[in-house]
Amino acid sequence: MTTASATTRPEPVLELQGVRKAYPGPVEVLRGVELTIQTGELLGIVGPSGSGKSTLLHIMGTLEQPTSGTVRIEGHDVTALGDKELSALRSRSIGFVFQQFFLLDGMTAVDNVANGVLYTGTSNARRRALAAEALDRVGLGHRLGHVPASLSGGERQRVAIARALLGRPAIVLADEPTGNLDSHSSAEIVALLHELHAAGATIAVVTHDHEVAAELPRRVQVRDGLVERDVRVGSPAGARA
Amino acid sequence: MSTRLAPSRLHAGDVLRVGGIGLRTRRLRAALSALGIAIGIAAMVGVLGLSESSKADLLDQLDRLGTNLLTVAPGQTLGGEDSSLPEKAEAMIGRIGPVQEVASVGTVDATVRRSPFIPEDETGGLAVRPATTNLLPTLGGTVRDGKFLDAATERHPTAVLGSVAAQRLGVTEVDGRRQVWIGDEWFTVIGILDPVQLAAGLDRSVMIGYPVAIQELGAERNASTVYVRSATDQVAAVRGVLGRTANPEDPEEVEVSQPSDALVARAAATSAFTSLFLGLGAVALLVGGVGIANVMVISVLERRSEIGLRRALGATRTHVAVQFLSESLLLSAIGGAGGVLLGAAVTAAYAAARGWQIVLPTAGLAGGLAAALLIGAIAGLYPAMRAARLAPTEALRSV
Predict the structure, then answer these.
(1) Residue whose C-alpha is closest to residue A113's, from A150, A167, A152
(2) CA pair distance B307, B302, nearest whole angstrom
(3) Which residues does chain B have within 8 Å of residue A75's beta carbon, measured at their own beta carbons?
(4) For residues B42 and B285, what is the distance between their CA atoms, to the nearest angstrom?
């Protein structure tokens, strides 16, 4: 897609236009969401439970297709892609971080992280080497051989974040990453996200925790299936009503 | 910037690695469901191995004993009375071209006892039979101890005991002093036979020479059974003329039989039982397969979040299906390999205990493994499809 604006804006990583999502029954969870995310952004998608923010994140991550509207990730129109192409997109362009971590019990931290590029055809040795580096970056270089059961909640989430970032995806989508953590671990995870953002990662965080959201440079407020407010802190030009 | 999407890929080695996760994390369950398959395969391999081994043993016996032995015995007259063979029968048979050897045993009206103090009617089921000196080589029999009758000993009161007869008479070895009471006279034991496969009746007999039987016990020279060895490719022809040759006047009163037929029949009977047990093994295998399918369905239910995670990591539906299918195949391969080993071990142990040669049919072993894999594939198919059909968001929501 090309933008015909005077200023040569970079290609957005992710672009939602008129995204609607209805489930069987008279429930319309999303009612025309417009959202553009540029490379290098760190944004929070906030809203009360039931506002549709989880569905929004699933659609952004191609785990679900919208009922109508378009979703573009790195220029690819997601709604036109089949299972194979969507999987390919997820394997290389999107990283996920979940509230429940979703680490595999029988595997060590390094193997769990290595799974981040399992489906890209990278060799096992290379995966593990990358994973060890990634764990080192999130401060778990000393926990490579630990299984999830012997890690604290905060450590587990850091493993999950290392996994999401392993393939250097265009965007990392984090679904309530601090939802299962105590306030201390939670602060650590938020600090880590800021750190990774500073290093160049594009990260979207879905959260209902206002404290977490307050620290993020861009906040997208969702209510009743619509974007209510989109605020950029310290960048007034980007602020919109 | 419509860069082409590089497709998701999973290397063959990673398929195995991923397929093995479920087994490594749930070892007991994996072991138990593999055991189901192992029992089925072991049963089938064991049945095949044992029947092959026993058949090989029978064929070996046939080879050793030969299929070219015919027996000629008197049948019944038209009036229903017992007939007898003419005195010259043996000599006549010996003149048939392809006949290589002729031996015979006769009858004598005497009993054998340990000593004269034992009542005459306590024969222990033993018979006294005059025999020609070439009887043993003709039948392919062997002497356990001592030696068989020869031109010298057949004229004197000497006796050779069949294997059962020796037991009943309490004779365990030949020392040249041991005697048995036959008719009204002591006979010295000069030999004890091994069981005679082609003429089991001789095991319960005490053999003495024709001359001594005729002189001392008043026997006739008429043979009661004539054993005929002929050229192997002429057996049928010889069989056709034996009746007429043995008793030219009443050929229909002669019964001709081929003792090796019994062994052939036993080999055939073994095959029939094999099919039956093979069927039972197949049922066990089927039950094992159902067990694997059951475990796989449960596994898919339990691991919904893992499936969701893998889809989020870029696994296609096919990758998910392949993962669960390979898990099922691994499970059945482990069970199959264990079953093949177990079945082979049982075969080897049983065959060794029976003194058979150990025959492990490679077709059976390979077939067992193949059957296990086939069962695993079928059992894994439905759970794999189910896992693949699971929508990613549904899978992730389930926790």
Answers:
(1) A167
(2) 10
(3) 1-3
(4) 9
Separation CA A21–CA A64 (nearest Å) = 9
Looking at the complex, does the CB of residue B393 fall below 8 Å from at least one CB of chain A?
A: yes
Mutate to test the interface with B, among A85, A102, A168 (most CBs of B within 10 A): A102
Cβ atoms of A188 and A140 within 8 Å: the answer is: no
A182 phi and psi angles, rounded to 5 deg: -75, 170
Q: Rounded to whole angstroms, how far apart are CA atoms B386 and B296?
A: 10
Domain residue spans in chain B?
A: 12-62+264-397, 68-259
Question: Both tokens of residue B59?
Answer: 């064929």
- Answer yes or no: do B393 and A83 touch at CB < 8 A: no
- B314-361 pLDDT, tens digit per residue, is 999 999 999 999 999 999 999 999 999 999 999 999 988 988 888 888
Cα separation, B351 vs B360, whole angstroms: 10
Q: What is the pLDDT of residues B208-239, one digit of tens each?
A: 888 888 888 887 887 888 888 888 778 888 88
Q: Which of the pair, B394 or A115, is modelled with greater confidence?
A: A115
